[in-house]
């Protein structure tokens, strides 16, 4: 039994035998939605942290890394994105980064209203004012159903989901990627978070194999997210037109000229696709 003065710690498990733990300096929000446990805690090192079930999703201190990586690589791969689709992304960080580009509209389909509300209330710096942007359209719905029903076309799509379990399981299927490809045009680009190269190599391989039949190019790229267990994290991008790793560097610099970033850099864009030798087997498992 913990004595009253001992702090609580939250354990975010990575592989079978290791985890990250975070001291809980304050519990700001704790509810069970229809889909998951939604918590927001305060932590001295990472600020306010969004935790779904027991997995750290994003934090005030390092959220920009993941959201810049998941947004700017696909948006810069497409030659001129106008219509963007986001599946998941309930904290609003990906929508915020997306709206920094000169697009016409961005539709975000998030299944759990509780995540949107909790982040708006307790970590407003992540969504910032993205929902007030007239180009933003927020739908509280199942992204699997939205894509299956189709009917709309997009240039770039991003899946910012929890790891494959429960409502997000179908977001990693070949059927979903095929339906998504049908919504994207001839230059269409889809980017998804594809897990850890240290302990989710099977997930990376599955995403690559499920995307391969539907996209001309499938490439996995690497980032370092301090609050994801094992820190190394991958994203996988499928592209119908241009090779994501072959975009003209001068074009990247020009397109990001008025979009200052803190992790993603046009000069490093191609390097994101070059992984350290010890991770290469995981990154090209497909
Ligand atoms: N952006 C954060 C990060 O840095 O990793 C985490 C992603 S966001 C919190 C994950 C979201 O995916 C959750 O809000 C969850 O409700 C949503 N989600 C899971 N399955 C979904 C589905 N089938 N359709 C729409 N949203 C879904």
Task: Give the tags.
single chain; 286 residues; alpha/beta; Spermidine Synthase, Chain: A, domain 2; Rossmann fold; 2 domains; 7-stranded mixed beta sheet; 4-stranded antiparallel beta sheet; 13 strands; 31% strand; globular; binds S-adenosylmethionine
What does this structure look like?
The longest helix has 15 residues, at 63-77. The strands form 3 sheets. Strands 9-8-7-10-11-13-12 form a 7-stranded mixed beta sheet. The termini are far apart. It has 286 residues and is α/β, with parallel strands linked by helices. Helix 3 (113-122) links the parallel strand 8 and strand 9. It contains 8 helices and 13 strands. It folds into 2 domains: 8-57, Roll (Spermidine Synthase, Chain: A, domain 2), CATH 2.30.140; 63-285, Vaccinia Virus protein VP39 (Rossmann fold, 3-Layer(aba) Sandwich), CATH 3.40.50.150. Bound molecules: S-adenosylmethionine.
Provide a quick synopsis of the model.
Helix content is 26%, strand content 31%.
Secondary structure topology:
Layout: E1 8-13, E2 19-24, E3 26-32, E4 37-43, E5 47-52, E6 55-59, H1 63-77, E7 83-88, H2 93-98, E8 105-110, H3 113-122, E9 136-140, H4 143-149, E10 154-160, H5 174-183, E11 184-195, H6 201-211, E12 217-224, E13 232-239, H7 249-255, H8 277-283
Parallel strand pairs: 7-8, 7-10, 8-9, 10-11
Antiparallel strand pairs: 1-2, 3-4, 4-5, 5-6, 11-13, 12-13
The structure holds S-adenosylmethionine (SAM).
């Amino acid at each position: 039994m913990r004595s009253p003065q001992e702090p609580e710690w939250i354990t975010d498990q990575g592989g079978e035998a290791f985890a990250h733990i975070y001291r809980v300096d304050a519990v700001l929000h704790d509810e069970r939605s229809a889909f998951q446990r939604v918590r927001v805690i305060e932590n001295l090192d990472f600020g306010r942290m969004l935790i779904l079930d027991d997995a750290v999703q994003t934090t005030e201190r390092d959220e920009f890394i993941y959201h810049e990586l998941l947004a700017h690589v696909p948006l810069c791969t497409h030659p001129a994105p106008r219509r963007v689709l986001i599946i998941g992304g309930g904290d609003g960080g990906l929508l915020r980064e997306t709206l920094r580009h000169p697009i016409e509209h961005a539709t975000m389909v998030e299944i759990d209203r509780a995540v949107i509300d909790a982040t708006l209330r307790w970590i407003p710096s992540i969504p910032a004012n993205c929902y007030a942007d007239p180009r933003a359209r927020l739908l509280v719905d199942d992204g699997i159903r939205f894509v299956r029903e189709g009917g709309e076309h997009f240039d770039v799509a991003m899946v910012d989901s929890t790891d494959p379990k429960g409502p997000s399981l179908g977001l990693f299927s070949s059927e979903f990627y095929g339906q998504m490809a049908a919504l994207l045009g001839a230059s269409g680009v889809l980017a998804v978070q594809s897990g850890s190269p240290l302990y989710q190599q099977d997930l990376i391989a599955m995403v690559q194999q499920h995307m391969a039949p539907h996209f001309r190019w499938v490439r996995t790229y690497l980032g370092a997210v301090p609050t994801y267990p094992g820190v190394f994290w991958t994203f996988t991008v499928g592209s119908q037109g241009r090779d994501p790793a072959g975009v003209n560097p001068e074009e990247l610099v020009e397109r990001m000229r008025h979009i200052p970033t803190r992790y993603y850099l046009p000069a490093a864009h191609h390097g994101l696709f070059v992984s350290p030798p010890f991770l290469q087997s995981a990154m090209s498992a497909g």
